[in-house]
Amino acid sequence: MFRFATIGICSALLSVSLFATGSECDDFTNVSLRKLHSKESINLCEFKDKPLLIVNTASNCGFTGQFKGLEQLYQDYKDKGLVVIGFPSDDFFQEEEDEANTAKVCFMNYGVTFPMMATTAVRGSDANDVFKHLNAATSSPNWNFYKYLVSADRKTIERFNSKTTPESDELRQAIEKQLK
Length: 180
Known about the structure:
The protein has 180 residues and is an alpha+beta fold. The chain has a single domain, classed as Glutaredoxin (3-Layer(aba) Sandwich), CATH 3.40.30.10. The protein has helices spanning 2-22, 66-77, 99-109, 129-137, 169-179; strands at 32-34, 41-43, 52-57, 83-88, 147-150, 157-160. A four-stranded mixed β-sheet has the order 4-3-5-6, with helices on one face. A two-stranded antiparallel ribbon has the order 1-2. Strand 5 and strand 6 form a beta hairpin. The radius of gyration is 19 Å and the shape is globular. One of its GO terms (molecular function) is peroxidase activity. This is Glutathione peroxidase. InterPro entries: Glutathione_peroxidase (IPR000889), GPX_AS (IPR029759), Thioredoxin-like_sf (IPR036249), Thioredoxin_domain (IPR013766). Residues 1-20 form the signal peptide.
């Protein structure tokens, strides 16, 4: 009887272990990042097997109004699997110094509900690990609101510049192709 109980416990532990391992990933998204104006972090593996739209953002840029369109993209496609992730950056000297002010712009002014990460570098040797990978695979953003569409299997990355708006047919068609 003891032997069967031990096997049952070992089996349960193995199941828990496999479940925990299943939430991990072996690509550039296996990184924990702090959320904007929060002590809470998320590991981007949470979005495993989902296409990602990764955007470097800024609060005081001529393109800041794109937050509205990015939020609409997120609302239109989140139930189909798309995850939009914002990375505020001061690399172009257009981000608030205080994260509380950045959060206000994102969450209060534009009603952003998609994940926003803490302010970080997106270019050069100081770039966060996600952008180091994106930059190596494509190239560094030349300005704020560059968009990187990453396939669910993480093998394809498409780069869209600031002038490609969230409402553009080009971006929407690329997203829909990734969702098929």
